[in-house]
Specification:
Helix content is 61%, strand content 2%. The chain contains nine helices and two strands, in the order H-H-H-H-E-E-H-H-H-H-H.
Length: 196
């Protein structure tokens, strides 16, 4: 699929005041979701259902089970309920590839950009990822999840969450720039090491 925009008539960019509600932070929620999906009691069937999530079929009972357990089942005012759930579906799909009982590839201290470089993610794919929005971003993130899983490469999935939930505006630009700095910083460090 080609790049699409994520704007909908009922969606705006969140402000700081709108984030001051009672819901858990995005960072904390990503950690809670990773722990839940990786727990022994979380069924293999639910984990498989999350892995099958796609832009064409983003909703599954496993999605709502996780959202209710981590306190993210109701959308904030700045986004429609359907879009909120769709973005969480993409995030949980990726986590389901990278987290299972006895193994987690979610680590807060490994920025996404650095993780992608360490795993050998090409610059062409990296640029395409950062330019994608909407369903195009969903498709790219499936590839990222499968690739990181195949390389057993940990990454900070809260960075992925920020890519998903902030797809336009200054905050989105800042997030993408931060991820790019991490990728190219790791690349530069590797080139310096090789030249010594």
């Amino acid at each position: 699929m080609s790049e699409t925009t994520d704007a909908t008539p009922t969606e705006t960019t969140p402000s700081a005041e709108e984030h001051a509600d009672e819901r858990p932070s995005l960072n904390a929620s990503v950690g809670s979701a990773a722990a839940l999906i990786g727990a022994e009691h979380f069924g293999n069937g639910d984990r498989a259902a999350l892995r099958r999530i796609s832009p064409e079929a983003p909703f599954t009972p496993a999605l709502w089970k996780v959202l209710h357990q981590i306190g993210q089942h109701d959308a904030p005012d700045w986004i429609s309920q359907k879009e909120w759930e769709r973005r969480w579906a993409t995030l949980l799909m990726g986590l389901a590839f990278c987290v299972e009982p006895g193994r987690t590839l979610h680590e807060y201290d490994v920025p996404l950009g650095r993780a992608l470089f360490a795993a050998g993610w090409s610059e062409l794919r990296f640029v395409r990822l950062l330019r994608s929005t909407g369903e195009g971003l969903d498709v790219e993130l499936r590839r990222v999840a499968q690739y990181l899983d195949s390389k057993a490469q940990p990454a900070n999935w809260a960075d992925v969450a920020r890519l998903l939930f902030y797809q336009s505006g200054d905050t989105a630009d800042d997030i993408r720039l931060s991820i790019a700095r991490d990728y190219y910083g790791a690349r530069y460090a590797a080139e310096q090491e090789q030249s010594e």
